[in-house]
Write a structure and sequence with these properties.
Length: 212
């Protein structure tokens, strides 16, 4: 499968690129700065800005699926440029006939906030209010499209190893005060979902599973 990854230079994006190549996918990494992506002979690096509608449209063409793990330009701040960028991705996919989109959001958005413990559900949304509001705006753009989308909502992420011990579902919850999941596990779920029709049109929560 030919997969285009937006946000490939970020920590989750880098893990996605690595795992996708290991699984034999043909991978394109969209990034503003080429040297921020771990280069591989089989990786196609596309240098561009999500704010550039034409660049996004050109990048999307010819792919089977698009994954967005775009971060924010400034932590704890509103970032309209990334919201616009997601709009460009959605429009480009519609224009180019690319149907499959997976977007990484955050479990702390209002309609899944009750699924997590007190710290992540009630305290963290205060400093993260701008980033959460941006996720809500981006999710709305995706939901309004007729693409075959999946929205993935993980909790706090770390650089831990892949474990495979995570839970996924539309209505799962935890009482853990600060649930933490590794980016490797999130990348694993995203890549498993790319060609899974059962996740189309779903908003999926990810949470750590029981320890071995």
């Amino acid at each position: 499968m030919r997969i285009l990854i937006f946000g490939a230079s970020g920590r989750t994006g880098g893990e996605l690129v690595r795992q996708a190549l290991e699984h034999g996918h043909t991978v394109s990494a969209f990034t503003r700065v080429a040297n921020r992506v771990a280069l591989a002979d089989s990786l196609d690096v596309i240098v561009g800005d999500v704010g550039d509608k034409d660049a996004v449209s050109k990048a999307v063409a010819g792919h089977d699926a698009v994954v967005s793990v775009l971060g924010v330009g400034r932590a704890l701040k509103h970032d309209q440029a990334v919201i616009d960028g997601v709009g460009h991705i959605v429009a480009a996919m519609a224009d180019q006939g690319v149907r499959r989109l997976i977007y990484q959001s955050f479990i702390g958005v209002p309609d899944s906030r009750a699924a997590v413990g007190f710290v992540l559900g009630r305290i963290a949304p205060i400093p993260l209010r701008h980033e959460i509001a941006d996720h809500v705006a981006k999710e709305a753009l995706i939901r309004a499209s007729d693409l075959n989308w999946t929205i993935v909502r993980p909790p706090t992420l770390n650089q831990g190893p892949y474990t495979g011990r995570y839970l996924d579902g539309e209505h799962i919850s935890t009482r853990t005060p600060v649930p933490i999941l590794s980016r490797a596990d999130v990348a694993d779920f995203i890549l498993r979902s790319v060609d899974d029709p059962l996740t189309v049109g779903k908003v999926v929560r990810l949470l750590p599973g029981p320890r071995a």
